[in-house]
Amino acid sequence: MVATTDSKAATASDIPSGRSPLLEPLELLVGSWEMEARFAEGAFGPGSPPVVNRDGRTTFEWLDGGFFLVQRWAVDHPVAPDGIAIIGANDDGALVQHYFDSRGVARRYTMTLDGHTWTLLRETGTEYFHQRYRGVISDDGNSIDGAWESSPDGQDWHHDFDLVYRRI
Question: How many CB atoms sit inside 10 A of residue 87's CB?
């Protein structure tokens, strides 16, 4: 709050008047989940075997006030990062995810949760690669079956790995 000259309190202009309806579908994600990552043969170099890692955990919970959904994850594998993501509605009326991990990586994704399809999309300039995730949420809401893809130019997409969530 900012004091005015007539001693009445004024509200900061960046405080929303109410919660965005875009946040309502995110309730479907709230809770604790096991994560399973599946990498195809050759994903880690020519001749490397397929890899399945079932040692990840993630939680989704509302930050006090209910305007942001916080995702925290940990993976018990030396090359997989632990991290945190904050999901909220931006000024343009869209969902956005701000991602931070234990490697020092910070990324911004546009996000949708449309019915039972969860998408994350990162479109960047030419110095980085583009990424997208598409996960399909089961009818009972207890699993999300999805995959990450990458692209050097945002046109030609390549499968990176499968990422499946199962509610605990």
Answer: 22
The answer to whether 163 and 146 are in contact (CB under 8 A) is yes
Q: pLDDT for 26-52, tens place per residue?
A: 999 999 999 999 999 998 889 989 989
Dihedral of CA atoms 95, 100, 106, 110 in degrees, nearest 10, equals: -10
Going by C-alpha positions, the residue among 89, 53, 68, 44 that lies closest to residue 164 is 53
Question: Which domains, and CATH codes, for the chain?
Answer: 20-167 (2.40.128.20)
- The pTM for the full model equals 0.87
Q: What b/e readout covers 34-62, taking b as 16+ CB neighbours within 10 angstroms?
A: ebbbebeeeeeeeeeeeeebeebbbebee
What tokens does 119 get?
């998408």
